[in-house]
Amino acid sequence: MDPEYEERQRQYSLNPFTYVLQFLALYGWYVIGGAAALLCAVQALRPRYRRWLEAREDAEYHKNPDKALARMEAIQRAREKQQELLLAASQRAAEQQREREERKKQENLERLQKYGAAAGGHKLGTPDDDYLPLSGGASTSSYRPPKRSACKGGGCGR
C-alpha cells in the first residue's frame, strides 16, 4: 500500500472529531430514540418522585413534632415579614401620591398667582360673559349642510 495513504488514515483515526462523526453516522437514530425515551420516562416519573419526597418529608415531621412546629413558626415569621414589607411599600406609595398631589396643587396656585384668573381657562355662564357658543351669534360660522337629494344614491340624471 501507499505509505502516504496509511499516514492519512492513521491521522483521521486519531482525530476525536472523526470518532464522533463516525459514531453518529452509525448510531445516530438510536441516540435520538434513546433521548426521546429518556425524556418520556423522566416526564412520567417526575410526579411520582415528587409525591415520594413529600411523603418522606411528612413522615419525618410526624416522627418529630418539634421540627414541624419549628417549620410552622418559620413560615409564620416569613408571612409576617412579607406583610410588613407590603405595608411599608404601601405607606411609601401613599406618601409619594400625597406629595405629587401637593406639588400639583402648589403649581396650580403659582400659575394662578402668576397669570391671574385667566390661568384657569375660560368659564362659561358667568354674568359678565358675552361668549355663548351655542347662541348662534355673529362670531360663529354660518355653515349649513347641503340639502339632501330626492334621488337616493345619486341616480336622478339617468
Automatic annotation (TrEMBL):
It is a single-pass membrane protein. Keywords: Cytoplasm, Endoplasmic reticulum, Membrane, Selenocysteine, Transmembrane, Transmembrane helix. Residues 95-113 have a biased composition (Basic and acidic residues). It is found in: Cytoplasm; Endoplasmic reticulum membrane. Residues 88-158 are annotated as: Disordered. PANTHER family: SELENOPROTEIN S. Coiled coil: none annotated. It comes from Loxostege sticticalis (Beet webworm moth). Belongs to the selenoprotein S family. This is Selenoprotein S.
